[in-house]
Amino acid sequence: MRTLTYFVATSLDGFIADPKGGFGDFLFEGDHMTALVEEYPDTLPAQAREAMGIDAPNQHFDTILMGRATYQVPGGLPSPYPHLRQYVVSTRLSTTPEDVQVVADPLAEVRELKEESDGLGIWLCGGGRLAAALLPEIDELVLKVHPIVLGKGIPLFAGDFPTARFAKASTRVFDSGVVFASYVKADVV
What we know:
Blueprint (H helix, E strand, L loop, with lengths): L3 E7 L4 E3 L13 H9 L6 H7 L8 E7 H4 L13 E5 L10 E4 L2 H10 L5 E6 L1 H7 L5 E6 L8 E2 L10 E8 L5 E7 L4
Parallel strand pairs: 1-6, 1-7, 3-4, 3-6, 4-5
Antiparallel strand pairs: 2-8, 7-10, 9-10
């Protein structure tokens, strides 16, 4: 059975983007970026992979699930992750490239993807409403906690969702101040 991992950058106060969906305040330089490129090359969009000359095989994920706003970030590519199977959750989006599948029911889609016997993990890229809707199916959280406070924006989880408990798996602190904190699903409270 495959796993769903919410792998996302967050501010100290729990926001994954500013109110307009931007993430320019997050740190894009520092030793945490070296670790990200080396250990999670599959999470870099095609544009970044090409600019950095990365042709590494996927290490963690072969599938990405993202909300419409995450997919349509300003300056985004029509197929941002061609090295992954791409799913966009939307009831309004109608035009995408052939390699980007639009789904309306994320819970059913994730349950179906998790039942596949082969493959790597499924990466939940964002956003907060989608994460809240999929919380019952999230097996792992990998939070890249940046040393910033945004004060407002798109929360890590947005909307109504059941309480869920996760257990600490690992923590890495970088000189940049960014912390990679991993948690695995524990018993639901």
